Design the sequence.
């Protein structure tokens, strides 16, 4: 079986190149392609978005196989991707998220229903994880060199880190669902939605394809995937969890995916090294520092790709032991890949993850 990797390795994050000193690739899944599976019955849409790449495959059935259908699908796909990028990019000073970050008044700021929805989901995961997931971590992301400002390429001094941590805390965002407003407890609270926006974009594209009557498709944005129905060969879409090795790209575990989403968070595609120490782009909001444990990646299967995206990040912060315990407590379908002292990798699945993947394979 041949393998086609979904996202192309990229140093881009939300529309702007990171400096060459950074090794910045997305933690990814692998999209399998067997001989003959990408024939005339599958339309493929691909391109660049949100500082990464996307691939969408739609299976044409009967009357929806014409050129007109493909044009409508392509427009729907790019329209949703452009919408999310326009609203939630931290790299664009004109995005809605940037306007929120620049808002220094004590009064609430009205936002779009899309941005509010993402913030609401983020708060849900933040509260459940005890702050392991926190979109207000933006100042720390910048300080460690992974955001648009990359303040301290080699990490902030301790006194600066302490000051930055005072600006971080999901409880500093007050959401009013009836009014669609966000109020910041401090004027310098800064939000970064990179750990949930790609998953949300996948959900938006999937919903747009549903509205067009598409029943079989696969949507991938920067390694986050949602699949509906079956592929052109009539079998579930085959998605591979990538082996967390920055030196090569290989599959750690293949999974059939049908009517579900999967997102992966890892420390092996977006990091830089300082004095021989790997500094991951995943920042623990509770300590203000990059994670420093043996968990190399975690993948979450969920009905909503945005939630899978956020949960994967939370579990990555919590680590191999606390993360696994919390995933089991929350009944999350998650697979953890942990570095062993020998240099290899060991994987550990929650019962929910095993039930989904084993059941789909039968």
Sequence:
């Amino acid at each position: 079986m041949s393998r086609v990797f979904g996202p192309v390795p990229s140093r881009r994050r939300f529309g702007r190149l990171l400096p060459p000193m950074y090794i910045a690739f997305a933690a990814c899944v692998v999209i399998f392609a067997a001989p003959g599976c990408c024939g005339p019955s599958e339309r493929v849409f691909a391109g660049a978005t949100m500082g990464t790449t996307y691939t969408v495959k739609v299976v044409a059935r009967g009357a929806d196989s014409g050129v007109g259908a493909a044009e409508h699908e392509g427009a729907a796909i790019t329209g949703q991707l452009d919408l999310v990028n326009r609203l939630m990019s931290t790299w664009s000073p004109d995005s809605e998220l940037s306007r929120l970050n620049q808002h220094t008044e004590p009064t609430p700021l009205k936002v779009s229903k899309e941005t509010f929805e993402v913030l609401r989901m983020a708060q849900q995961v933040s509260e459940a994880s005890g702050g392991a997931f926190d979109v207000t971590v933006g100042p720390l992301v910048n300080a460690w060199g992974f955001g648009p400002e990359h303040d301290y390429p080699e990490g902030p001094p301790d006194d600066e880190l302490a000051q930055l941590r005072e600006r971080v805390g999901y409880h500093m965002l007050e959401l009013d669902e009836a009014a669609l407003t966000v109020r910041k407890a401090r004027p310098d609270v800064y939000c970064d939605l990179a750990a949930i926006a790609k998953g949300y974009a996948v959900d938006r594209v999937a919903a747009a394809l549903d509205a067009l009557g598409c029943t079989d498709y696969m949507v991938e944005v920067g390694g986050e995937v949602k699949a509906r129905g079956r592929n052109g060969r009539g079998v579930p879409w085959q998605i591979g969890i990538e082996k967390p090795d920055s030196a090569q790209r290989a599959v750690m575990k293949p999974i059939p995916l049908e009517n579900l989403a999967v997102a992966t968070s890892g420390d092996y595609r977006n990091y830089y090294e300082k004095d021989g120490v790997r500094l991951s782009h995943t920042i623990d909001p509770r300590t203000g520092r990059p994670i420093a444990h043996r968990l190399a990646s975690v993948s979450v299967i969920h009905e909503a790709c945005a939630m899978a995206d956020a949960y994967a990040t939370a579990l990555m912060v919590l680590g191999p032991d606390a993360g696994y315990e919390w995933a089991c407590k929350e009944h999350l379908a998650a697979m953890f890949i942990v570095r062993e002292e020998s240099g290899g990798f060991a994987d550990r699945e929650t019962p929910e993850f095993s039930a989904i993947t084993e059941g789909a394979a039968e």
